[in-house]
Amino acid sequence: MELALYDRELGYYARAARRSGRAGDFFTSVDVGSLFGEILEIQLAEMAAILDAQSGQPEARSPKPKAFFDLVEAGAGNGRLAADILRAARGRDPLVYDRMRLHLVEASAPARAAQRAVLDEVADRLASSSESLPDSFEGAIVANELLDALPVHQVVMRPDGLREVYVDVSSARLVTREGPLSTAQIIDYLDRLGVVLEPGWRIEINLRAISWIGDVARRLRRGFVILIDYGHEARELYSAAHAGGTLTAFARHTMAGAESPGACPSWLQHPGEQDITAHVDFTAVRAAAEVEGLTTLGFLDQTYFLLGLVAGSSGSGSSPLNRLNPLNLRQLKTLVLPGGLGSTHKVLILGKGIGTPALRGCSYTMRVT
Predict the structure, then answer these.
(1) What is the pTM of this model?
(2) Could you give the residue ranges of the DSSP H alpha helices within 142-274?
């Protein structure tokens, strides 16, 4: 999975500046239109105000703000989401915009090369573009559909115990084979969650996501983490409902699952030519974050997160929902309707050094479906 997605010369993500959208292989909230970033900016502006209020700084919209607000986007691609956020901030919260420092984190060199052109008139806010997170920052980090694309371990329960699935070569083609676990961390992971697997159940374990959130927690001095991805709580993810595993490939908007796992499953075909993903275990991510000193502020469907933001009042006292034009209303429906992006995508919000403030994005309801 690491090689197929991220190899510098042959990796799926490494070879192109953009993989999503109608001309790509899959569809994200960013591809719906600029509204997703515009709504997300409402939450980020509130977060900036909370940081100011707790540090004795002027509120975000008052004159002469003193502190920078670092906006870090991990898995930023060519910068489309960041551009939508910044344009919204420039028009709606100019004092927040003026103190934003944008840090784009992206593994793909072609995507990084395209970022300044995509940012265009808001590129003045770009402080860094790199493969790595900033060493230290204060503000907010956003990761939209990043964790699901991190390489995972796949394991299957057999009558004689847990076995790991490996990739091998047979007759000049890639196949899977089972063998002993590659690391004791897999057993530790399942034990911490109290997961009991039945014989035949196949699951994915994302140790990389655990490492990533720990790294974020250590680099974030004070502020917020917003994770948006598709996944489940552990009790649902590791259950009969997903006993075949969730490892999936996408190509030309067609999903390929784990058929024929003993030979060459669909996700193993055409390496480097298709996206490979697995559902996120939000229970494990949240627990790892809390061990590193982060506090969970909210976990809810994208539907209710976005509705909480658009239904709230703006700085002028009017609801952003009242100002949506017909095009944006169509975009909003796509983003929030159950059964689509709204219910499949979850939002996990974490904080560090800011207590447990009530956030507008969590005001509609704390429902997870």
Answers:
(1) 0.91
(2) 185-193, 207-219, 234-237
